[in-house]
What we know:
Blueprint: E1 2-4, E2 8-10, E3 24-28, E4 31-39, E5 46-56, E6 61-64
Amino acid sequence: MEWHDGAKRTQTIYEGIYDKPPAKVWGVQGHLCVSMQACARYEDACTVQVIAYRYDAGARSFAELENGRQCSR
């Protein structure tokens, strides 16, 4: 992701290979939320993973939170 906070900033917040791209990204109450679906090879069953991030102004970067509950829609 790229943003501007006094200067141009860039950070990779999640990296992986998934069968059902693209990931969904949205904001809720000051959190950045990322959702992606992962499917086991040769399986029909897939799991959805949601990761929540909060911007740390002091560090000028996004920090992952312990769980994605903040991202409920």
